[in-house]
Amino acid sequence: MNEKETLTFEESMKSLEELVEKLEKGDVPLEEAISMFQEGMKLSKECHDRLQKVEKQMTEVLSEDGEISTFQVEEES
Fold first, then answer.
1. How far apart (Å, rounded) are the C-alpha atoms in residues 3 and 25?
2. Helix then strand then coil, % of the chain, to nearest 5
3. Interatomic CA distance for residues 71 and 37, integer angstroms
4. What is the pTM assigned to this prediction?
């Protein structure tokens, strides 16, 4: 993947799933498997970082006075 090329979350997940499928088949030469594993780890980290960023955005709410506050969902018992 080119460093200038930015994949969407969905594209990253699809690429990660494809890498996992190829590795699970077990018919990949060792050197290629290592390279694929490293690419998979990179994609996994990118997806995880994006999810954390979105989670943070979803838990912060802008109040009427312009202050950011934490949004908490009250669960029903």
1. 28
2. 60, 10, 30
3. 37
4. 0.69
